[in-house]
Design goal:
The protein has helices at about 10-20, 40-45, 60-75, 90-105, 120-125, 145-150, 175-185, 225-230, 245-255, 260-270, 280-295, 325-335, 360-370; strands at about 25, 85-90, 110-115, 130-135, 155-160, 190-195, 220-225, 235-240, 300, 310-315, 335, 340, 355. With about 375 residues, the protein is of the alpha/beta class. The strands form 3 sheets. The chain has a 7-stranded mixed beta sheet with strand order 2-8-7-6-5-3-4, with helices on both faces. Strand 3 (about 110-115), helix 5 and strand 4 (about 130-135) form a beta-alpha-beta unit. The termini are far apart.
Length: about 375
């Protein structure tokens, strides 16, 4: 008997397979197709012949932990203890899984804000806990009336994602004010903040849990080197949490992976000395603006994109088809793969919106736009 009977292949797997089968341009799955920084590749190549191939400490390579603490202080003016409050994870997904498995007990509740990324629900269900799906507003801002109504003494976690996948929306200071009020109202409530796109924001600077001192003792953040440095296949990220929460998370982490691959940790540790993470926003803003300008000639209606490398578009004035049918036809008839938004909702609601990944080289984006103009 399946523990996850209603969960099958993810929409990302389905659409990427269709893109391959039909030789379509893949703007569905969120991975860059341009080269990794040559400096990082050179570091990795040199390290391959050095003595960095055995187990790293369970929490992570100590110099990397120190660099993360320094980066966190530089970015957010938060001082974290690199020995007790940081954990290197096998991608952000492992960090999310380990934290939920460690902290959520049977029959407790976890609030997920829809549309939401698909890796949140499974570890909740495997904990014999209850996911509570609360829809965002139509403009993808938090609906605090509904969030407050859904929270009770049995709510263990609220999961937030900022900048938001799939919509590219970012939170405001007012949203964090409301979150602080919510946490003040429920002594058992912990915030899990998915911030894997933290360095990919545009007109407005990223506001992090790290910026809100009142939340530090009741929150966990997850970050992704894979997203920040265009190395998604390395599957390496990290979480930051107060020691009393981190102790529990490490108990699960050690039996999932024990430690993350060593050469990647050493390479990233060295790379952090020379890379400017604060240039990422400008880099991806140019990608966003380039792609949006190309799509002006299409019939698609582009929604605002404040962060991430995803662009959501409405096709409502093109077709009345549901979004899954439309995206399948987009692949088979027009040769472009996108992601429907309905799978990000618990109720599968169809908003006539689809998501494109613009973390691609310009030639790919131009070719995709030439096909989308034909819609």
């Amino acid at each position: 008997m399946s523990k996850l009977p209603h969960i099958g292949s993810s929409i990302f797997t389905v659409m990427s397979q269709m893109a391959t089968e039909h030789n379509a341009i893949n703007l569905s799955q969120g991975f860059p197709n341009f080269p990794v920084d040559k400096r990082l590749i050179a570091i990795f190549a040199r390290l391959a012949s050095e003595n960095v191939h055995q187990y790293s400490p369970m929490s992570g390579y100590p110099p990397l932990l120190e660099k993360i603490a320094k980066l966190t202080q530089q970015s957010y003016r938060r001082i974290v203890n690199n020995k007790s409050e940081i954990l290197i994870t096998a991608g952000a997904t492992e960090g999310i899984f380990a934290a939920i498995q460690a902290l959520v007990n049977p029959n407790e509740e976890v609030i997920i804000l829809d549309p939401s990324y698909d890796c949140y629900e499974a570890p909740i269900l495997l904990s014999n806990a209850k996911p509570i799906r609360v829809a965002l507003n139509d403009d993808f801002t938090p609906n605090w009336e509904n969030i407050n109504a859904a929270t009770n003494e049995n709510t263990k976690l609220i999961i937030i994602n900022n900048p938001h996948n799939p919509t590219g929306k970012t939170w405001t200071s007012a949203d964090f004010d409301q979150l602080e009020k919510l946490v003040d109202s429920f002594s058992n409530l912990i915030v899990f903040s998915d911030e894997v796109y933290e360095y990919i924001t545009f007109e407005q600077p990223h506001i992090s849990i790290h910026n809100r001192q009142k939340l530090w003792n009741r929150s966990i953040t997850v970050s992704s080197f894979g997203k920040s440095f265009h190395i998604t296949g390395w599957k390496i990220g990290y979480i930051i949490a107060p020691e009393h929460l981190m102790k529990e998370i490490k108990k699960v982490h050690q039996f999932l992976v024990f430690s993350v691959n060593s050469i990647s940790q050493v390479a990233i540790s060295e790379y952090l000395d020379i890379v400017d993470v604060y240039s990422l926003g400008n880099f991806y803003q140019q990608k966003r603006d380039f792609f949006r300008n190309l799509l002006k000639e299409t019939k698609l209606q582009l929604l605002p994109c404040e962060g991430t490398y995803f662009q959501v578009a409405s096709y409502a004035n093109i077709s009345s088809e549901d979004d899954f049918t439309f995206t399948k036809r987009l692949v088979t008839e027009f040769g472009v793969a996108a992601i429907p938004i309905s799978p990000f909702y618990a109720d599968g609601r169809d908003t006539k919106c689809i998501r494109f990944c613009f973390a691609k080289d310009n030639a790919t984006l131009i070719q995709a736009a030439e096909r989308l103009i034909k819609l």
